[in-house]
Design goal:
This protein is mainly alpha-helical. It has 2 domains: about 30 residues, no CATH class; about 100 residues, Orthogonal Bundle (Helix Hairpins), CATH 1.10.287. The protein has 4 helices and no strands. The longest helix is centred in the C-terminal third of the chain and has 39 residues. The chain is flat. The termini are far apart.
Length: about 130
């Protein structure tokens, strides 16, 4: 597809944003893990607000997990397009992409526990 002008063109930006939103909608509709991760992010961000904790680490951790899940879905789609039958390298690509999601999720869990854990425990100990 040809570029329609300058990278700074508002028309080009809106067109690109439309493609991105379309991708987000498709992945949300078709990928159960992405939906779970979106709602886990909403819960974590809500706790951040309720507990008055710094939002930046939670926002970044959530964005990382959701971004890696989007990339995992893209890798799976491209591998399925290139090699519909089972192939050892297709398995490696899909497993590595899934591993990236797992690693990002574990990192986000550690960030959540370190940022949200202490104030949540204090709230539980002292009563709401």
């Amino acid at each position: 597809m040809r570029s329609d002008g300058s990278a700074l063109s508002p028309r080009r930006w809106w067109r690109s944003a439309g493609f991105a939103v379309s991708g987000l909608r498709h992945v949300y509709r078709t990928q159960a893990n992405f939906r779970i991760e979106v709602w886990a992010a909403a819960l974590a961000l809500s706790l951040t607000w309720v507990l008055h904790t710094p939002p930046a680490p939670i926002v970044l951790a959530c964005a990382l997990v959701l971004s890696v899940e989007l990339l995992n879905t893209a890798v799976e789609a491209v591998v399925d397009l290139a090699t519909p039958e089972l192939h050892p390298l297709a398995k490696v690509a899909k497993d590595a992409a899934a591993g990236a999601v797992l690693l990002a999720s574990l990192g986000a869990l550690l960030v959540g526990c370190s940022v949200l854990g202490p104030p949540l425990l204090a709230l539980i100990r002292h009563g709401a």
